[in-house]
Amino acid sequence: MTKTYTTHAGKIVEFDVVIDDILQNLSTENIEPNNKALLSLVNDYEDGEWRRRKFLNFIWDNIKETALSQTEKEAYIGNERTILEKSVKNLRLLEGEESGGEIGEILLYGIMKKYYSALPVVPKIFYKQNRQDFAKGADSVHITLNYDKTFSLWLGEAKFYNSIDDSRLNSIVDSVHNMFINDKLRKELNIVTSMRDLDLFIDDENVLYNVKQKLSDGVSLDEIKQYLHVPILILHECNITKNNTDVYEEYKKKIKEEHIKKAETFMKKQDKKFEDIYNYQEIKFHLILFPVPEKSILVDKFYKRAIFERDED
């Protein structure tokens, strides 16, 4: 399998790529089937401090990708303040263990746009809020268009946790597995084909027709799995990141070692859980790991601004 597996643009200016490879190329263990990739991203430091403002700016800069429909974004081009206000009003501001979940979802949408050149055909925060669907199903829905006028469908999962211990990894594996219950998977496809955003994003009528035909009710889910990608973002609190005093390059080496180990553990759990999924080997999985020093501080900063923006008259 070649590097075209990840179909990415290859760069996120804001963050550094520590790993972008097939897991089988990174691991000393026998990782089969060969349908798994690992993308490890890190934020940098300034004056010995993790650049929290830069990270949060990325979230605010990309909130519209998942919180507004394409029609709304186009209607308010040039009115960035209005776009921000309308985006914030669609946030759910989750509490308890799920707090900060929106940050993970927005980060995934930003990564999908900037790194994988993906089209956000279903803005999930917008969709959930406007249909009171806290829903179940994918946290992100994207399409990438290939040079040969074919396409790939991306159904993503995003989590923001204060650790990535075994219990957290088990929870994420279960959540991803739930996406593949046939009724839920079919529901996601119906959402894609019913959203007007698809027509706005794809100019080529032949490509648009092909996408809609491939995702229509009459097509077997077995066929869809052949061009299905599943990005799994785990935004996580990390002691290495929190306590870092090393030169930046040394820090990245430590993160690389840690993320490869976590990816091996995660994918072993996923392989076992997905034994009941037909054509599992056809689906391409992209584990995306992003470490932060402290979850609570980021959530608090984000929520305070979100509440201010939402409640301001």
Strand content: 15-25%
Pick out the low-confidence regions: 1-7
Biggest β-sheet: count, sense, barrel?
Answer: 7 strands, mixed
The helical percent reads 40-55%
SSE order = EHEEEHHHHEHEEHHHHHEHHEH
Tally of discrete structural domains: 1
From the alpha carbons, calculate the radius of gyration and give it in angstroms: 19 Å
Helix-strand category: alpha/beta
How far the N terminus sits from the C terminus, by CA atoms, comes to 54 Å
Give the overall silhouette. globular
The mean pLDDT is 88
Number of strands: 9
Strand order of the largest sheet: 1-2-9-8-7-6-5
Please explain how this structure is put together.
By secondary structure, the chain is α/β, with parallel strands linked by helices. Strand 6 (140-145) and strand 7 (151-161) form a beta hairpin. Helix 2 crosses helix 4 (80-89), helix 4 packs across helix 14 (295-311) and helix 7 packs across helix 13. The chain has one domain. The radius of gyration is 19 Å and the shape is globular. It has 14 helices and 9 strands.
